[in-house]
Design brief:
transmembrane; XapX domain-containing protein
Length: 55
Amino acid sequence: MSLGKIILYAMGLGILVGLIVSKVAPDLPASLIGMVVTIFATVAAGRLQPPPPRR
């Protein structure tokens, strides 16, 4: 899976979590929580990637 697709999925996950948070707890900053989830999902997916083959 390419890095662009991983970032796209992570952004979707962050937006989804932000929407859920804004519905469940309107006093929390949903956009900030969505951004944090996006960053963590991108970093986690990058760590799950197999290392590039050595030449």
